[in-house]
User: Which sequence fits this backbone?
């Protein structure tokens, strides 16, 4: 069964610092990759997604992620974080086999951005 | 922008009682899902539903759980006899299509129902 690992459980940054959150998955076949964000008191929102094509994908609010197939990774990056980026970030994978369509989530990374 | 909605936002129930969690998916979506997140743990898949039948379910989704689309708009999750360990945040999601090779589809999530079983 596929699994998703997020190595950083809690990250604290100052405003304007650069961000990179790690995500690795365990499935060797075709995958769809997602980052979701959950702001305090709000629901899961899609930040960005990778289906195919250019492995560097850009999402909302200045976030981007790079799919590196050889490393089974899909790390999330932002060059300069803002206080409003304080949230929990979830990496998720769909494996495209046999019509299965469930999202497998990582454990999440709680990001706190300090002023 | 269309959103998935869920009711109630919070539910407290006694162990052994039945609960029904309600969801209204995005109107033109065809695939519906339930996930749950136990406090401090990862979001876990429960079940997916398409064309009025379950298309996939996890080991968590045992005989105590059922899903239904009683009309053209609602999608419900019923827990027949709740247990303490069912306490969690339950998320509904919907997508326009299912993922397929060479393409993909995004699942949009509702705000969740926080269920507390006492």
Assistant:
């Amino acid at each position: 069964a596929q699994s998703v690992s997020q190595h950083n459980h809690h990250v604290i940054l100052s405003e304007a610092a650069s961000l990179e959150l790690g995500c690795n998955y365990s499935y060797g076949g075709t995958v769809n990759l997602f980052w979701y964000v959950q702001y305090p008191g709000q629901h899961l929102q899609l930040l960005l997604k990778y289906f195919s094509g250019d492995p560097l994908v850009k999402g909302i609010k200045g976030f981007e992620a790079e799919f590196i197939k050889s490393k089974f990774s899909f790390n999330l990056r932002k060059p300069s974080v803002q206080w409003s980026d304080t949230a929990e970030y979830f990496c998720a994978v769909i494996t495209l086999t046999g019509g299965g369509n469930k999202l497998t989530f990582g454990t999440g990374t709680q990001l706190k951005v300090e002023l | 922008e269309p959103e998935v909605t869920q009711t109630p936002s919070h539910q407290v129930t006694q162990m052994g009682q039945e609960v029904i969690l309600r969801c209204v998916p995005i109107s033109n979506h065809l695939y519906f899902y339930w996930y749950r997140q136990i406090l401090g743990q990862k979001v876990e898949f429960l079940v997916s539903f398409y064309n009025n039948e379950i298309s996939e379910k996890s080991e968590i989704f045992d005989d105590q759980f059922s899903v239904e689309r009683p009309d053209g708009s609602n999608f419900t999750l019923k827990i027949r006899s709740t247990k303490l360990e069912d306490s969690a945040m339950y998320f509904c999601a919907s997508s326009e299509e299912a993922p397929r090779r060479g393409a993909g589809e995004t699942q949009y999530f509702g705000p969740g129902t926080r269920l507390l079983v006492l």
Chain B touches chain A through 31 residues (CB under 8 Å).
